[in-house]
Design goal:
5 helices; 13% helix; globular
Length: 230
């Protein structure tokens, strides 16, 4: 029998990362080489995603310049590859704030992670071959965060991106369907309070699962069909 606590205690944690999927965000550097950065401040609405990043990060600079990226979702089996990118940056010289935290410049992020770049269809940055999910996307809007606070102003940005292509490994597709992901086969890598976790088995049935997925279809899906290959 499981006992459920009902008592709260007020605390002031330094971060509020209660658990979100890890994304390996690929962008294109000024010299045309690919950059690959792990991040987990992300959520999806339809075929749009909102990415929370430091405004000074190399990935942010690349996004603002090229307006293109790929959201690669690693499985829990790729945890060690993702961790190899920790405390690395594609920015040279390394910003002082990152240098103080132990970051170092790494020009070949794919090589450092032991991952394979593959050409994308609609954007310049490559997809990650080993990631079970890869979404090619373009930047649609930039939303500054914390502008009301002088100490944070200009340091955090939320990027709104629109997905143009979704690629998945066949082994996470729902058998007998063309466009459904099998949640029992898909094992995303999750970050919770700076630590990496896998996803456990389903703990309870979901009433929402009775709603056909087609009812959630976004107009961006039809729009994506008209985007030509590069």
């Amino acid at each position: 029998m499981t006992t459920i606590s009902t008592t709260h205690t007020r605390i002031e944690p330094n971060i509020l990362y209660f658990g979100t999927p890890v994304v390996l965000l690929s962008t294109e550097n000024e010299d045309g080489t690919p950059n690959l950065a792990p991040m987990s401040s992300v959520f999806w609405l339809g075929w749009r995603a909102v990415l929370g990043l430091s405004a000074r990060a190399q990935t942010s600079r690349n996004l603002l310049r090229t307006r293109e990226c790929v959201l690669n979702l690693p499985s829990d089996a790729l945890a060690s590859h993702v961790d190899r990118l920790a405390l690395t940056t594609g920015a040279h010289p390394v910003p002082q704030r990152k240098a103080d935290r132990g970051y170092r410049y790494v020009p070949d992020k794919f090589g450092r992670a032991g991952l394979t770049p593959v050409a994308s269809e609609t954007v310049a940055p490559p997809r990650v071959a080993e990631c079970p999910v890869a979404m090619e996307a373009v930047l649609e809007a930039v939303h500054p965060i914390g502008e009301d606070d002088e100490r944070q102003r200009g340091s955090i940005v939320a990027f709104e991106v629109r997905v143009q292509r979704v690629y998945v490994h066949d082994d996470i597709r729902m058998p007998g369907t063309d466009d459904h992901i099998d949640p029992d086969a898909w094992r995303p890598l999750v970050m919770s309070f700076q630590k990496l976790y896998g996803l456990g088995p389903q703990v309870h049935g979901s009433t929402l699962a009775d709603i056909p997925e087609r009812w959630y279809r976004s107009p961006d899906v039809d729009r994506a069909q008209d985007v030509p290959a590069r």
